[in-house]
Predict the 3D structure of the following.
Amino acid sequence: MKAFFLALSLFIGLGTAAQAQLKDHHSERPGNSSPTAAQADALTRQMSQQLSLNEAQIIKLRTVNKIKLARTDEIKWQFHEDPLECKAKLIELQSQYENECGRILTPSQLSALRDEHPESVPTPPSSEGGLG
């Protein structure tokens, strides 16, 4: 009986410590403290309707979308004082995202995705009218 109460109090103590650490983690990040799972699910659902995805594609894209949304939040938070660096990192992330989508989607689905979101495709800066 003594061992049971000792184990129970240890379990409660560890649970409290873990909860406190979790609150610390969320307090470091501004904005909503909930993970981006709901946003990723909504984005994946929208893509599924627009692109007629199969089940395997939906599962893979949900994971890719979660990672993209989490990294987007992280980049915006990390580089909020340097907008140029933030923009460069977001463009790099978008390129990686498109590469992952290219591995998951068929060519026709990928084309439809690019037609739906032309602003997400990074365009290289032109050197017209510039000094260099």
Notes: The radius of gyration is 21 Å. Residues 68 and 96 are 9 Å apart (CA to CA). Residues 121-127 have pLDDT under 50 and may be disordered. Helices lie at 2-28, 37-51, 55-78, 83-104, 107-116.
